[in-house]
Specification:
alpha/beta; Rossmann fold; six-stranded parallel beta sheet; 6 strands
Length: 141
């Protein structure tokens, strides 16, 4: 079962295994879907519902890979990427976005320039996303 960071700014461990991937998105349906797919593929994950909770989880569990949305309440993904990169330069970060005031391509370009290792536009191809995550996990080991 995925670790889940529930509610605003709270962190809760639900599994004794250290998750390899932290998924941060304010859409519960996205978190649930990705958790189901990644776990079916044997990838241990934790989830967080906003950038503040995501940063707390990042500091607590030290994931190998972070998959984060860009447009979120409390703390956006751009600021989150910058903070995570400052704290752990070697962590693999994947940014995803589906909309925004200046268009998803521009947000993803900014995310890449500020430290994301990969970018994924929403809607994404789940097989490609799993392949990208597995690639980042192999690079780290």
């Amino acid at each position: 079962m995925a670790d889940d960071v529930k509610g605003k700014h709270s962190a809760q461990r639900l599994s004794p295994a250290a998750p390899a991937v932290l998924v941060i998105d304010d859409d519960p349906a996205v978190l649930h879907s990705l958790a189901s797919v990644f776990e079916a593929c044997g990838i241990a994950i934790a989830t967080a519902r906003d950038g503040v909770a995501g940063l707390e989880a990042f500091r607590r569990i030290s994931p190998a890979v972070v998959l984060t949305d860009i447009i979120m309440p409390e703390q956006d993904g751009i600021g989150l990427i910058m903070e995570m990169r400052r704290e752990r330069p070697g962590v693999k970060i994947i940014a995803m976005s589906g909309s925004g005031r200046i268009g998803k391509s521009d947000f993803l370009t900014v995310a890449k320039s500020l430290g994301a290792d990969s970018v994924v536009p929403k809607p994404f191809d789940i097989d490609e996303l799993v392949t990208t995550i597995r690639g980042h996990l192999q690079l780290r080991s």
